[in-house]
Write a structure and sequence with these properties.
Layout lengths: L1 H17 L7 H21 L7 H16 L6
Helix pairs in contact: 1-2, 2-3
């Protein structure tokens, strides 16, 4: 649990730094980062904590930002 809290603390610090020019962006950005952590955790937990495909974990973690890069209406 201590490690999870350290990761969440890091997510807050990174998000604060990334949204310094627009504090109103903190909520959505932090939610996206926390969601990415949750998706990565889910993938690893589903694999019963055995080795997991790193590319799949990275894709899941970056999904919110990759979706924002796509032109509207395209997947």
């Amino acid at each position: 649990m201590k490690n999870v809290l350290a990761v969440v603390h890091s997510l807050v610090a990174l998000t604060l730094r990334a949204t310094a020019d627009g504090p109103s962006r903190f909520g959505p950005e932090f939610s996206a980062r926390l969601g990415a952590l949750a998706r990565a955790h889910d993938l690893i937990a589903r694999a019963d904590w055995q080795p997991t495909d790193l590319a799949e974990v990275v894709r899941a973690a970056l999904a919110p930002w990759r979706a924002a890069e796509r032109p509207h209406g395209r997947r």
